[in-house]
Design goal:
alpha+beta; 4-stranded mixed beta sheet; single chain; about 60% helix; 5 helices
């Protein structure tokens, strides 16, 4: 049964989750979609193309989180990035509709300080720490 707090978190992330759902619908042709730990995960050829060509990073991204939606290039990308992307889901729960602007500000701030706009972004640093912590817990 959903608690009031879990309903509030869902509603708080709903604008971002809705954008994620639209992205999944765009890529739905030949896409695989499933729910893992309460998060909608999707991958397929169109989503892989979007991640490779529209994410402003060298080589694109293996996966991207939008609220409670994670899109990946393929099943292996989703598996490999799951711990990292779940940190972003928690960040969306905290920041809600403010997450994307806060993320962009963190990227610009890092760049203005002469740092990397992705690898030195505060939100990414937290996700990389969470990813490492989960791997350590699993004995990897």
């Amino acid at each position: 049964m959903a608690t009031l707090s879990s309903i509030a978190r869902f509603v708080w992330t709903l604008p971002n989750t809705a954008v994620g759902a639209v992205v999944v619908l765009v890529g739905l042709s030949r896409a695989r979609v499933r729910v893992v730990d309460g998060v909608l995960e999707a991958h397929g050829p169109v989503l892989a193309w979007l991640l490779t060509n529209l994410v402003p990073m060298s080589g694109g991204a293996a996966a991207l989180t939008l609220g409670y939606v994670v899109v990946g290039r393929d099943a292996q990308s989703l598996e490999a990035t799951r711990a990292h992307e779940r940190v972003h889901v928690r960040q969306y729960e905290t920041w809600g509709p403010l997450f994307v602007p806060a993320y962009l500000i963190a990227s610009v701030t890092a760049a203005l300080r002469g740092r990397h706009c992705y690898f030195d972004n505060t939100f990414e640093l937290e996700a990389f720490r969470g990813e490492t912590g989960r791997a350590a817990e699993a004995g990897l």
